Amino acid sequence: MKVTTKKAALGGLAMFGAAALLAGCASAPEESNESGGETLDYLPCMVSDEGGFDDKSFNQLGFEGLTKAADELGVDYTEVESAAETDYASNLQGLVDQGCNTIVTVGFLLAPAALESATANPDLEYISIDDTVDTDFDGTTDAENIKPIIFDTAQAAYLAGYLAAGMSETGVVGTYGGLNIPTVSIFMDGFAQGVEHYNEENGTAVKVLGWDRAKEDGSFTGGFAPDDKAKQVAQGLIDQNVDVLLPVGGPIYQPGAAAIRDSGREIALIGVDADVYETDPSVGDLLLTSIRKGIDVGVYDAIIEAGNGEFDPTPFVGTLENEGVGLAPFHDWESKVPAELADKVAELQEAIIAGDITVESYLAG
């Protein structure tokens, strides 16, 4: 576990070089800002899931949104990094004890602990990334002081699936995830739907390995660590002649990239959450595209509102229409993607936005 309180500054993750402090021992917010003006009496905070803030994916995006907002507001922020799921409750309590006004929880798995903390501290504000915190499934968030930031990534994954099917030369594409939870499987299922649509339109039979829509199950690593298990799962798909690979779960794409390089074959990698070409240039040459979530923008907007006394618990749902989700550019693969296929993907995006195509997901409605 790592807790740090800092004054926000430009430079994003370069700030991780500062010394880490144990929970409850972080330095207090400064009384005045660097320009000598009065400091806003507001402390935004964030707790990661076990992927950590340097996952080059959704934890990192959330952190970048936090630091950008804190910089604009001219305030300190506090972050705490979770090493395991067992850290969640204690990390949240540590942030409460340090006087945080708004606490951002990053990831679906943090939702139960976030609800418990929010219920116990109704005067504090919580922002839940990737979960609606609706444990009784009545369609509403279970605490009035929690704002969900969620993403219907099935829509963008549908486009990626169609693209992958069009790019595949072996007729086999694959996907694997960290855990079989809704925020992971939504990518995999949307991807499979896109491949199905490609087959229907083109009379082809491109196979999807790693996800079974009927069984709602597939290939999973058991967590979000970039470990040997993740590489084994990726290798198992590559051994079945996959030539497009979609890993879903923070840094678990890294062992997948290693398995691709070891294969000596041209296999396209699809990133998730961030534009991985930008966050991890070391795999840039492998990336066909990335399925993006606007986590950084969602967190930034919510913290700015809260810091200005305008916290709004209304859920934000990212879609293709509001640009909360989307596909990243093809970057190094631009010249390899046929213009006709790229145009078709753009047409499908407009059809989804218009409601002419419905992509199934637990957030669709």
TrEMBL record:
Tell me the classification of the organism that encodes this protein: Bacteria, Bacillati, Actinomycetota, Actinomycetes, Micrococcales
In the record, the note on similarity to other proteins reads: Belongs to the BMP lipoprotein family.
Topology in the lipid bilayer: Lipid-anchor
Species whose genome carries this gene:
Agromyces lapidis
Where in or outside the cell? Cell membrane
- Establish whether keyword Lipoprotein is in the entry: yes
CDD domains noted in UniProt? PBP1_PrnA-like (cd06354)
Superkingdom of origin: Bacteria
The ABC transporter substrate-binding protein PnrA-like domain is annotated at: 46-312
In Pfam terms, one family for this protein is: Bmp
Record has GTP-binding as a keyword:
no
Which positions make up the signal peptide?
1-28
Extract the coiled-coil ranges from the record.
none
Q: What is its main location?
A: membrane
Q: What is this protein called?
A: BMP family protein
Kindly state which keywords UniProt assigns to this record, in alphabetical order: Cell membrane, Lipoprotein, Membrane, Signal
